[in-house]
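Need residues for this backbone.
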């Protein structure tokens, strides 16, 4: 193998390694973000499932519940309708 071929091989190897590492890093970050999003969704569902009935019993309106919990009216209504 000549010097030119050795240099090309080294450049190719480094490029593959760099691309592989960038792909791994990107995959980790994407997985982390998906995990965070899923956790937030589960947390919101849990809060709605437990808080909405209790707040309704205390006399809060749907609008008040949505505002206090910082969720849409649709989500509160869906929980009341048993769809949440």
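Answer:
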């Amino acid at each position: 193998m000549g010097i030119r071929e050795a240099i090309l091989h080294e450049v190719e190897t480094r490029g593959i390694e760099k691309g592989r590492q960038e792909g791994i890093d990107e995959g980790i970050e994407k997985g982390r973000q998906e995990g965070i999003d899923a956790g937030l969704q589960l947390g919101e569902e849990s809060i709605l499932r437990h808080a909405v009935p209790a707040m309704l019993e205390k006399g809060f309106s749907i609008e008040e519940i949505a505002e206090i919990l910082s969720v849409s009216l649709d989500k509160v209504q869906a929980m009341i309708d048993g769809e949440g």
